[in-house]
Design goal:
One of its GO terms (molecular function) is catalytic activity. Belongs to the UPF0313 family. The chain has 23 helices and 28 strands. It is of the alpha/beta class. It folds into three domains: 264 residues, no CATH class; 115 residues, Transcription Regulator spoIIAA (2-Layer Sandwich), CATH 3.30.750; 161 residues, Transcription Regulator spoIIAA, CATH 3.30.750.200. A nine-stranded mixed sheet has the order 7-5-8-9-12-13-16-15-14, sandwiched between helices. Strands 26-27-28 form a three-stranded parallel sheet. A two-stranded antiparallel ribbon has the order 1-2. Strand 3 and strand 4 form a beta hairpin. Helix 9 runs antiparallel to helix 20 and helix 19 crosses helix 23. The termini are far apart.
Length: 678
């Protein structure tokens, strides 16, 4: 049920006006009059306010409910609403009491929907060293304890126990990345498809708008939920005696069974090549995997969303605010970070081996129209507490807007997991002109004082020596536009490492291109009389990384004038090449062995090289580099006349609540500092 604006207030087109009572919502000490029915209902009282006597779908989420297009649960709720359904959301249900939250709203007519939230719950709950976090970014006040481990499985099992006859559909990043046999870092074991552990009836992987539309269409036609088994971008478990659903347009491929994976790490690794390639193909095969007495069936993905489709998703009537129920509980950190940001596209063609973006959003870019972006900018600009500053105009990678293949038929046949590794594809249009024009259109809004680029920028695509297809002047124009108008003191980029073998495995370009980018950055800095800092982001203990590689990284970055304070250790997350290597020891594409630091001692020692300048690390560095026979590196890091201030900074390096959140599942600012050499 969609809403419209009347007399300055948002009303439902089907509700009598007498059911409304004004709610005064306070954000940043600004009073804004809204109606409780502007949000999706979260209680029976709110359902009755809408005049409903029953619900079609009830959505359970591991996150607090923020009605904003950057929050997946809100998007799914609004999408289902736009299909004419009566939808309610139960955010962060209590699993430690009498489970009242799972029965209080009754049974939906169509199905329950379940998501663990915007991040995998294990990443929300634990650091890279498996320690409990002291903050949850998606909970009011950052409070912990409101999201269980493996939330999708926990919620679904409870629903299946309470409502055995009601279908449960799972989705979101947790379900998406755990759809096949996967390594779970926190339990240190292989797990089967989350469909098996959760007992859900269907899994939607990737972005949910397209498959949900088809599922709802079939249900409204009267097709029983159990008979819906050929929708693209969904997965189900079949009993082995069941007939396999037929589709003459699909080819099939079978991967190694879950039981074989448990016994053979190399066989497990071999699965991933098929999974990754089929996830990124435009004409993918249907995947089958035996799981005990059942067979997992993963249908091919939908084509990339069209501009009209993605615009429609962002144009839904979001309040862009947390639900009023949280008013007295404190701010929601993740919301505070993005409340004045604009997402301009989905997908990433980088295919980095430690990143899950392409596995969830796809490698092909789905870009919004400039008109849709500007409509959202206008909405944000007219929020009562907006001060004129947009915190981010970006996406998974800030500078991939409108980029796609020049000849679509070439992309149709491509199986490469990355369009820019080891080199930029000659068929990829990497023009930054549409993005530069978008920035200028945004800045022309009378209420916008400045729009920032908070998302990470692919610096390698701005280097002509690497991006040989592009016009160097256009690349310089974009870089200059960003440096002069869209950052405040610092530009963050992610070279990730300095070792070419490690970077090759990461699917990242040589560090030499970072040197070249820095030269261009410094040139513009001088030309424009700026005093900007370049902030590079690095990862330690990645597969193929040795202690000597970290020593080289420390020496090379010091030589460039960087003093790294906050960086990240590699965290294995499901559905990445690096995680497969971490667990199995084999590269899934070559099936050759790859050494990986796995013990806590190895990880801590690699990470320690980032902080070569700390007094407590200097003796250890001397002993380690002498043992490695790398006196040359020792002379760089700890020379006799070291000009670095010996006691700066003091104390141990400390991480904030999301320092160790993998890069692909963060939207925060860079988590370390660097200083130019004095």
């Amino acid at each position: 049920m969609l809403s419209f604006i009347k007399k300055g207030r948002r009303y439902s087109d089907k509700l009598p006006h007498h059911v409304y009572e004004p709610i005064f919502v306070y954000f940043c000490n600004v009073k804004q009059e809204l109606q409780l029915s502007d949000w999706l209902p979260t209680t029976n009282k709110e359902v009755k306010i809408r005049g409903w006597d029953a619900l079609d779908v009830i959505l359970f989420s591991g996150d607090a409910y923020v009605d904003h297009p950057s929050f997946g649960p809100a998007v799914i709720g609004r999408i289902l609403e736009s299909y004419g359904l009566r939808v309610a959301i139960v955010p962060q249900p209590n699993v430690n009491d009498n489970l009242q939250d799972f029965v209080k709203m009754g049974a939906p007519k169509l199905f329950f929907a379940v998501t663990g939230g915007c991040m995998d719950p294990m990443i929300s709950n634990y650091t890279a060293s498996k320690k409990k976090r002291d903050k949850d970014a998606y909970t009011p006040n950052g409070d912990i304890g409101f999201r269980p481990d493996y939330a999708t499985t926990v919620y679904t099992n409870i629903l299946k126990e309470k409502w055995p006859d009601i279908p449960v559909l799972i989705g979101g990043i947790e379900a998406s990345l755990r759809r096949v046999t996967h390594y779970d870092y926190w339990s240190d074991k292989l797990m089967p498809s989350i469909l098996e552990s959760s007992k859900a009836d269907m899994l939607v992987y990737g972005m949910g708008e397209q498959p949900l539309r088809e599922v709802v269409r079939l249900l409204e036609k009267g097709v029983p939920f159990k008979n819906i088994n050929t929708v693209l971008q969904t997965a189900i478990l079949l009993d082995n005696e069941e007939d396999v659903p037929k589709n003459s347009n699909w080819e099939d491929v079978e991967i190694v069974s879950h039981e074989t994976c448990l016994q053979d790490k190399k066989a497990y690794a071999s699965n991933f090549k098929t999974i990754e390639q089929e996830s990124n193909k435009l004409a993918a095969r249907r995947i089958f995997q035996k799981v005990g007495k059942k067979t997992l069936m993963i249908n091919p993905p939908y084509p990339t969303m069209t501009e009209d489709e993605i615009d429609a998703s962002f144009d839904l009537p979001y309040t862009r605010l947390p639900h009023p129920k949280y008013n007295k509980r404190g701010p929601i950190p993740a919301y505070e970070m993005i409340k004045f940001s604009i997402n301009i596209h989905r997908g990433c063609f980088g295919g980095c081996s430690f990143c899950t973006i392409s596995a969830h959003q796809g490698k092909f870019i789905a870009s919004r129209s400039q008109e849709s972006v500007l409509r959202e900018v206008d909405t944000v600009a007219n929020m009562p507490d907006f001060k004129g500053y947009l915190s981010d105009i970006g996406g998974p990678s800030a500078n991939m807007y409108k980029m796609k293949g020049k000849i679509q038929s070439i992309c149709d046949k491509c199986v490469a997991p990355s369009c820019i590794s080891p080199v930029i594809c000659s068929n990829l249009d990497t023009s930054h002109k549409p993005l530069t024009e978008l920035y200028r259109a945004v800045d022309s809004h009378p209420k916008i004082k400045k729009s920032f680029i908070g998302s990470g920028i692919r610096h390698d695509m701005l280097v002509p020596e690497f991006n040989k297809n592009a016009d160097p002047k256009e690349l310089d124009d974009y870089t200059e536009e960003v440096m002069t108008k869209h950052i405040s003191g610092r530009l963050k980029v992610a070279p990730e490492h300095t070792s070419d073998p490690v970077l090759k495995l990461m699917r990242k370009p040589s560090f030499s291109y970072f040197h070249k980018f820095k030269e261009r950055f410094d040139k513009i800095n001088i030309k424009k009389g700026l005093n900007l800092q370049l902030i590079p982001y690095f990862i330690s203990n990645h597969p193929a990384c040795e202690a000597e590689d970290m020593a080289n990284l420390a020496a090379e970055t010091k030589d460039m004038g960087f003093q790294l304070e906050q960086v990240q250790g590699f965290t294995p997350t499901p559905m990445t090449v690096a995680t497969v290597i971490y667990y199995s020891g084999y590269h899934p594409y070559t099936l050759k062995k790859v050494n990986t630091p796995k013990t806590q001692k190895e990880k801590d020692e690699q990470h320690r090289f980032f902080f070569w300048y700390k007094n407590e690390n200097k003796d250890w560095i001397r002993k380690t580099l002498n043992k490695l026979g790398r006196q040359d590196l020792l002379n760089v890091l700890l020379p006799e006349n070291d000009k670095w201030r010996k006691n700066k900074p003091s104390g141990d390096a400390k991480h904030t609540f999301d320092d160790a959140i993998p890069f692909n599942q963060r939207k925060n600012k860079a988590k370390f500092k660097s200083k130019k050499k004095r």
